[in-house]
Design goal:
The protein is mainly alpha-helical. It contains 1 helix and no strands. The protein is rod-shaped and about 95 Å long. It starts with a helix and ends in a 9-residue tail after the last helix.
Length: 69
């Protein structure tokens, strides 16, 4: 009977350790998600800026007689 309690206690200890580990991992993943969202927003802004620059350059190019650049 005592060995059953010891086995149960060991299982509970492992469960508590796993829960702690998973909580830490979850917190890390949440931080990573926020960081990646921020990076994604910065990259979208850079792409938009590049797009705007290309549009500006294209608008300055002279057109030929067919209206093509």
């Amino acid at each position: 009977m005592i060995s059953e309690f010891e086995l149960l206690a060991e299982k509970l200890k492992r469960l508590a350790e796993m829960t702690h580990t998973l909580r830490l991992e979850n917190a890390t993943l949440r931080r990573n998600t926020v960081d990646l969202g921020d990076e994604n927003a910065r990259l979208r802004e850079r792409v938009q800026q590049a797009h705007d620059r290309v549009e500006s350059i294209l608008a300055q190019l002279p057109l030929d007689e067919k209206g093509l650049v």
